[in-house]
């Protein structure tokens, strides 16, 4: 019987713990998609959770990530959510005759893309530098991503160190 009051007190105490402390304890963080750039995967306003990277992210093609965009991209200084298309050492280009992205000389199968074309921006192949990744939104007609900035700082790539979370899209609400 003495255990029940302790458990109830423990549960109610958790509700007042600030969210940053919960994030540190669980290794997960909540993120909100602020645009239509990741549709249909994530709707504008969707809240998702992701694993906090703490500087330990090992890039994988297809990951949906939250990251701090390079300063050259402008913006409000907040995070963005995009999909990893190219990892360090990859060559990314657009597009093959069927309008698919080309990664390392092979067409990329992207069932998550909202548009008929994988990109409305064509560009010469870009080699992703070490320590950087190439990112794109799933709604390619509206997404401002590596394609939009490929003539800027390090060919529009994002530093791996700027990745703050790996998103679990199944948690979208």
In short:
This protein is of the alpha+beta class and 173 residues long. The protein is built from two helices and eleven strands, in the order ααβββββββββββ. Residues 1-18 have low confidence and may be disordered.
- Pairing-aware structural class of the strands and helices? alpha+beta
**Separation, N- and C-terminal Cα atoms:** 38 Å
Unreliable segments (pLDDT under 50, ≥5 consecutive)?
1-18
User: Which percent bin holds the helix content?
Assistant: 10-25%
Share of β-strand residues: 25-35%
Nearest-integer average pLDDT: 85
Examine the coordinates and then state which fold CATH places here, giving the name of the CATH topology: Umud Fragment, subunit A
The CATH architecture comes to: Ribbon
**Could you tell me the radius of gyration in angstroms?**
19 Å
* N to C succession of SSEs: HHEEEEEEEEEEE
- Sheet bearing the most strands, described? 7 strands, antiparallel
**By CATH's scheme, which homologous superfamily applies?**
Umud Fragment, subunit A
CATH class descriptor: Mainly Beta
How many structural domains in the coordinates? 1
Order of adjacent strands in the largest pleated sheet: 1-2-11-3-4-9-10
Total E-strand runs: 11
Number of helices: 2
**What is the 3D shape?**
globular
